[in-house]
Amino acid sequence: MTDARLLLDTAVAKTDEMGALGARLAAVLRAGDLVVLTGPLGAGKTTLTRGLGAALGARGQVSSPTFVLARTHPTTSGPDLVHVDAYRLSDPVELDDLDLDWDASIVVVEWGRGFVDGISDSVLDVEIVRATGADPDAPEDDADPDDVPDEPRRVIVTATGPRWSDAVL
């Protein structure tokens, strides 16, 4: 495996900007690509995936797959978008048990660090860092758990492997 290469380090101030960043990523993705999203609860992982799904023409609502573990969204533009949430998994073998079509789909795995090792020699790693002092556990009456409050985030996109050797975002 080749060394990681920084593709993007940017500030994202608003929810719609996180969705737009997802659309920007969608423009470079193709079947067989693996994207790992890392960040605390409420960081914007699902919001980014929604933007990615919208840009790909994904059918169905792209929402957090925490309780179903994985959702497959056929797209109008080509390969399916498979959205996985590894938060409740205790072992990488459980991810393998989901029997995902890694080669024919674009697979996005939330909380995937440490769970996707060995699945692909090329990985796009997206880390979302919330501002210091952000409280993801603060109670919000009737809040949609997939909604991301407008507050600054830093998004760092790192690429590993031959697929991303000359990629530009």
Features:
single chain, 169 residues, alpha/beta, seven-stranded mixed beta sheet, 7 strands, 17% helix
Describe this structure in words.
The chain has 169 residues and is of the alpha/beta class. The protein is built from 3 helices and 7 strands, in the order E-H-E-H-E-E-H-E-E-E. A 7-stranded mixed beta sheet has the order 1-7-6-2-5-4-3. Helix 3 links the parallel strand 4 and strand 5. It starts with a strand and ends in a 9-residue tail after the last strand.
Distance separating the two termini: 21 Å
Radius of gyration: 15 Å
Query: What is the approximate shape?
Result: globular
Please estimate the helix content: 10-25%
Q: Determine the strand fraction and express it as a percent band.
A: 25-35%
The whole-number mean of residue pLDDT values reads 88
Could you name the ranges where pLDDT drops below 50 across 5 or more consecutive residues? Answer: 138-142
- SSE string: EHEHEEHEEE
SS-derived structural category:
alpha/beta
Summarize the structure.
The protein is an alpha/beta fold and 169 residues long. The chain is built from 3 helices and 7 strands.
Q: Layout of SSEs?
A:
Elements: E1 5-12, H1 15-26, E2 34-38, H2 45-56, E3 70-73, E4 80-85, H3 92-96, E5 105-110, E6 123-130, E7 153-160
Parallel strand pairs: 2-5, 2-6, 4-5
Antiparallel strand pairs: 1-7, 3-4, 6-7
